[in-house]
Design a protein that fits this description.
With 212 residues, the protein is mainly β. It contains no helices and 19 strands.
Length: 212
């Protein structure tokens, strides 16, 4: 499961950071199918059937989320590259996380065997007044790059929250460090640094040509 922005919120009693009612969280299931013979391999999203999203509410209650017509959620129906992609427009609260469960079936056309897929994702919210200084990035910890669908250039915007207050980046000294893949365990990490981005202060932009 990948997400468009961070799935960890802060709440100061008035404002959520980030606020999903203004900038929705988008969750994209990722289902890959392969076998030992190599007859089937690759992204299985377009082949999934019987798609379903469920919200697990406080107290263990379950609510099935319709693909459209809901004030807080919507998702893409089966049959396309974005099948199952869920848009979340509801904020979580510190005392009640949002637990979202995706389910679908994949039919092996060679044997007609049905394989059930289930993926859960938890959206958490912390009390900003009680939380330590927190750095939030508007990018998921992991993402899968599709050159036919996604923009190649990505901007990453940081948000620094102290005692429930969002700091102005012009008042914060920023530095980006990116670890280079392939460093051996007995070697010191290699970093590339950006003190200031050409986009604007505190923001870094990079170009994706593969998985990120």
């Amino acid at each position: 499961m990948t997400s468009s922005v961070t799935d960890q919120q802060l709440y100061d009693g008035v404002v959520h950071t980030p606020d999903y009612t203004l900038a929705p969280l988008v969750l994209s299931p990722y289902v890959n199918v392969s076998d030992q013979e190599g007859d089937i391999s690759g992204n299985a999203l377009p082949q999934l059937v019987n798609l379903k999203w469920t919200l697990l509410e406080v107290g263990g209650r379950k609510r099935e989320i319709p693909s459209s017509g809901d004030a807080y959620f919507s998702w893409e129906k089966a049959g396309g590259e974005n099948a199952g992609r869920l848009k979340v427009m509801q904020n979580a609260m510190p005392e009640s996380a949002l637990t979202l469960v995706f389910e679908a079936d994949h039919v092996d056309k060679r044997t007609l065997d049905v394989h059930h897929v289930q993926i859960s994702h938890v959206v958490r919210c912390r009390n900003a007044a009680a939380a330590p200084p927190t750095l939030l990035l508007d990018i998921a910890p992991q993402s899968f790059y599709n050159p036919l669908r996604d923009e190649s250039t990505v901007e990453v915007h940081p948000t620094f929250v102290v005692s429930g207050q969002t700091m102005n980046l012009s008042d914060v000294e920023t530095k980006w460090e990116v670890q280079i893949a392939g460093v051996r365990g007995n070697e010191s990490p290699i970093f590339v640094e950006w003190n200031h981005s050409s986009v604007k202060r505190g923001v870094v932009a990079f170009v994706r040509r593969g998985s990120a």
